[in-house]
Specification:
Length: 246
């Protein structure tokens, strides 16, 4: 197997289903964790919940509209009406799940069919797996666990929209202000394990009972319950396949 992979060209590897985002037709990529018994001996989420992890402080977060760009730019045919939306859900989960998931994610609540599908995929693959991890770490006594949501007041916040901000790279005055806050928190966290200092807006530790988080936006605030109803659904529904394993 190793020899085969080493001999393969980049073009050949890109033909593997799921290896290239532009080939996605069912909404899922195939580059999730693989418990092989050698490099990875158990599902990460199970290890987190059992406390079989290094006792270190953790910051975890997502962007508000994680999979919006995925649906807009990498789907072969982004849904534009109810029929196409139901067809996309059917390809993902089977026709027997259409009514349940359309009821959970009605396009009327998200402004468009693309927005609804993006919200579904964001919850399934980003927001809800993150919540499971942070809850698991909190429950086994990690020294400090904190959650954030990158959610500017204007514009979309798709996956990686915040990636350059910890480096001080910003394209607008609003982004520059958010970037400075992120850098201040990140530097303090790296130095001590605690992102707060006496003169900074207080970022409380994550509490699984309230699902609290820091909103990284023009004006910092602490909120709670982001996508909690939807994540409760995915946590108990067998459709909620977790990229980290469960």
């Amino acid at each position: 197997m190793a020899g085969c992979l080493r001999a393969a060209t980049a073009d050949e590897l890109l033909e593997v289903p799921g290896a290239n985002l532009t080939t996605i037709t069912n909404g899922r990529a195939d580059f999730y964790t693989n418990v092989d018994g050698y490099v990875l001996t158990e599902n990460p989420l199970q290890a987190f919940r059992a406390g079989r992890v290094n006792p270190v402080s953790v910051i975890g977060g997502t962007t508000r509209d994680e999979n919006l760009a995925t649906v807009q730019f990498f789907y072969e045919s982004p849904p534009t009406n109810d029929t196409e939306y139901r067809a996309a859900i059917s390809r993902l989960f089977g026709p027997e799940e259409e009514d349940t998931l359309v009821g959970m994610y009605p396009p009327s609540s998200y402004g468009s069919h693309v927005g609804a599908l993006a919200a579904l995929l964001s919850d399934l693959t980003m927001h809800c797996p993150l919540r499971r991890v942070l809850r698991g770490l909190s429950e086994v006594g990690a020294p400090s666990v904190r959650r954030y949501l990158y959610s500017p007041r204007t514009g979309a916040a798709a996956h990686s929209a915040d990636a350059a901000l910890p480096l001080g790279i910003a394209s607008t005055p609003v982004e520059a202000a958010i970037s400075q806050n992120i850098m201040d928190y990140w530097v303090s966290f790296a130095a001590s394990g605690d992102p707060n200092d006496g003169a900074r807006f207080d970022w409380p530790a994550y509490d699984p009972a309230t699902d609290n988080y820091l909103v990284l936006a023009e004006d910092l605030e602490v909120a709670s319950g982001f996508r909690s109803l939807q994540c409760d659904f995915w946590d108990t529904d067998p459709l909620g396949i977790d990229p980290l394993g469960d």
